[in-house]
Amino acid sequence: MSKMRLLLAAGIALTLGQSAVAQEEITDTAADYEEGGRWYTQHGIPTFKVEEDGTVDFATFSGFRRYNAECFQCHGPDGAGGSYAPALQESVMRLDYYEFQDIVVNGKQEVNAAQNLVMPALGQNPNVMCYLDDIYTYLRARGTDTVGRGRPAKKQDKPEAFSEAEDACMGS
Ligand code: HEC
């Protein structure tokens, strides 16, 4: 099964109901282990790793680029929020990882007398879905103020395992 399908299946499983994720899992961003060219917390949630000299892990840098390509026009620069859509650097510190994925896959619509805001369902867009963990870790790095605004100055070289996972997801 492709990664894209797995993500879609995860989205469906979510809609069918899942117990709330412990608060500690949401606030924990500490990198614990590396797998497939990216870092995870001890809870198995994708996370960032930034060296003391400011070098960011490749996935986080990729997330910065993908965020700017796919989310920026509504959510504003650097995850900081726009006039149309909320600051995702804050959303990712409040929502859990699965809620975040669910909203991106299935979309969200706030309709009331004052506004009619639509978060599009992006679950069919490989340029979003194949890089969603990257976008997530970038936003978490922003939300904890580990990475500043703008393009990260230094990044890790692209790990081979990262390229392989990317190619498998994009089907190239
Ligand atoms: C066409 C504009 C648009 C684009 C593009 C877009 N969003 Fe949104 N998004 C919105 C709007 C509007 C909302 C608020 C919807 C609501 O509150 O019902 C939203 C809400 C969200 C939320 C929920 C935030 C919260 O605090 O509840 C998440 C998560 C999210 N978007 C992620 C993303 C990601 C990740 C991308 C890029 C891959 C993206 N969005 C691209 C318009 C957009």
TrEMBL record:
Sorted UniProt keywords: Heme, Iron, Metal-binding, Signal
Compositional bias of kind Acidic residues: 163-172
PROSITE patterns: CYTC (PS51007)
InterPro entries noted in UniProt: C-typ_cyt_methanol_metab-rel, Cyt_c-like_dom, Cyt_c-like_dom_sf
GO molecular function term, any single one: heme binding
Leader sequence segment: 1-22
Domain Cytochrome c: 49-143
Annotated segments matching region Disordered: 146-172
Top-level taxon of the source organism: Bacteria
UniProt-recorded name of the protein: Methanol metabolism-related c-type cytochrome
UniProt source species: Silicimonas algicola
